[in-house]
Amino acid sequence: MDIGVLVALVVVLGIAAQWLAARLRMPAILPLILLGVVVGPVLGIVRPEAQLGHALGPLVGLAVAVILFEGGLRLRLHEFHQAAAGVHRLVYIGVPLAFALGTLAARFIGGLDWAVASVFGAISVVTGPTVVLPLLRHAMLNRRIAASLKWEAILNDPLGALLAVLVFQFWLYQAAGNSGIGVLVDFSRGALGGGLIGFIAAWFLGFSFRREWVPEFLKQPVTLALVLMVYVVANELQHESGLLAVTIMGITLGNLNLPVMEEMRRFKEYLSTLLVSIVFILLSANLNLSRLSSLPWSVVLVVPVLLFLVRPVTVALATLGSGLSWRERVVAAWAAPRGVVAAATGGVLAPPLMAAGYQDAAALEPLLFGLVFASVILQGGTLTGLARALGLAARSRNRLLIIGANAWSLGMARAVTAAGGAVLLVDNVWHRLSEARLAGVDVYYGEILSEQAEVALELTDVGILLAATQNDAYNALVCSGFAPELGREQVFQLAMHRAESAGGRRLARPRRGRIAFSPELRYETLIRRMYGGWRFQKTTLTGQFNYSALRERLPEEAVPVVLLRAGGALRLIAAANAGGDRGGGRQAEDKKRPGLTPPGIEPKAGDILINFVPPKSG
User: Is the pTM for the entire model greater than 0.85?
Assistant: First the structure.
């Protein structure tokens, strides 16, 4: 197969697996691995080792470098302080414990010689961010345990790779009859040198961005180029220290508070998603099933021992006195799927070990891939259910986040809460929230776009946002800020004033939210109607009293605002012209009864529809 066709096929398969996972609401790693196995060892369509040759290893290494850099960008210092005790112990105590226990398991249960067992134990300590980060997004864990697992995964990956190289080189020195002191020198040089290179690169990049030495359109490409250069240079200094260097670079750059940082994080997240898809397809397709099936049962038994014994014992001992609850410790004990670095490192280190006379190294690569596969399938497929059962994860993203407390938004929050929905009302003026607090509505006092809100607010269950302040520009800013996380179709703002929404003066769609309810219902209109006696009316639809019957009962001016599905899903009603973006569209009958027909939403029996109705409505 031509290399160009191979690359295109792998990209298409990877993105198809990501899309399928999103549609089925499952971790993307599962379909990626399964699809890779199908097109690789099962059907023989994709054969990376034969088609890419020696380029496979370096290409995977560069991709992992970018993935780790992107993970470092996500590590915010306020998250570290929030989860500090757990992270410290999972890294500083957990890594040595996992290394020791993994080595003993491979030696005395798997029967591998000490050299191969210790290399395996070192590689197995990593909990790869290529798997953990997508799992955290899917599982919707609460902020503290999610921060602990995220920091552990991103820090453990390069540290585990360096530890594996240290152990690997020790045994090569031993085979050659040399002293092990050289290994410590090499390790120190790699760790300190790699970390320093990453820190200096990030500082220089931040300095050049602040001085405007780099044009805006080149900031993302320059960053990517520098990441690849740092990885290569650090690896030349010491094998595998490049991963540590790019991780330190990402963490440093992510906490410099650069104006371009959010855009950079978003760009790198998209790139990382693409690279994770490609790498997992390639590694899964490169799997040798015959070698995996030929492993002795004693060696295969090492995998469940690591998953069900070594990891729980490691977490239990490492987190004693850390402040984590027993529920959080249970989730941490189960959330240890291995990723790209574990699979790739085994393939790199096994051949030199075999050449040095350690024949058990033939089992290293299939054993590690078996660990990756089993941990991803078992833990990736059950983490969400376990976390929800323990009360550490949101069960759905059906909470409505309303920005701006006023008479109208408070009335809407009350109505949604009374109907069984979940609402969080946010405002940065304290007295505006007093009535909401007395009414039992969940509130947050502060600026929603501030770093403090990132620390204090638990938004894992939020699925829809409505910006309802009197400032159209601020509403648009809030919607733009939350659109990447919630999805652009789930961020709404009130209709804008005519001067801001007319003709060429209208804000471009990517810079604002969808228009809620009706293009005519601006902030002042809603407030005036609220003080004029309008109210929110809740109606439960049945088979006999359906939406059509309800429409006949409601006055022409009534406006549907929220639909609560029988299953618990919450839908905010967009303007009747499919979001208010085109100023026309499907409004034949709605010109007579504006905003009454929810576009794209068909209310059914059992659903609850909340309408904003005039005072004469019964």
Answer: no
